[in-house]
Design brief:
This protein is α+β, with helices and mostly antiparallel strands and 117 residues long. The chain folds into two domains: 28 residues, no CATH class; 66 residues, SUI1-like domain (Translation Initiation Factor Eif1, 2-Layer Sandwich). Helix content is 28%, strand content 20%. Strands 3-4-6-5 form a four-stranded antiparallel β-sheet, with helices on one face. A two-stranded antiparallel ribbon has the order 1-2. The model has no long low-confidence stretch (mean pLDDT 84).
């Protein structure tokens, strides 16, 4: 019986070490993570800024969606915006989340960077 015939994923091999669940290669030679970081989301290209408190116990966050950037590009842009506004935040599901209401400042900054017309 071959490994491909079995109904499980190999996670560790004594000869290779940890195995990537996505491609089946050793973690040291896996490129799945880099491919995922380089992927650009399929969006309509319209940048949307909105303020949301839902599911955050009343704490508001500014969300920026619709940017046609890879995950690495979104992380870089989020870092610039967080430093510029002096706030925390993250990138989730190809959306930049900034803690607090920074819609107007984010719009001005995105215009300056060329993401908005």
């Amino acid at each position: 019986m071959k490994n491909s015939d079995l109904n499980y994923n190999l996670v560790y091999s004594t000869s290779q070490g940890s195995i990537c669940s996505g491609c089946g290669q050793a973690i040291s030679s896996c490129v799945c993570h880099e491919i995922k970081k380089a992927a650009v989301p399929n969006t309509d290209g319209v940048v949307r800024l909105f303020y949301e408190t839902k599911g955050r116990k009343g704490k508001g966050m500014t969300l920026i969606t619709g940017l046609v950037l890879s995950a690495a590009g979104l992380l870089d842009l989020a870092k610039k915006l967080k430093q510029r506004f002096g706030t925390g935040g993250s990138v989730k599901d190809y959306a930049i989340e900034l803690q607090g209401d920074f819609r107007k400042q984010a719009e001005q900054e995105l215009r300056k960077l060329g993401f908005l017309k």
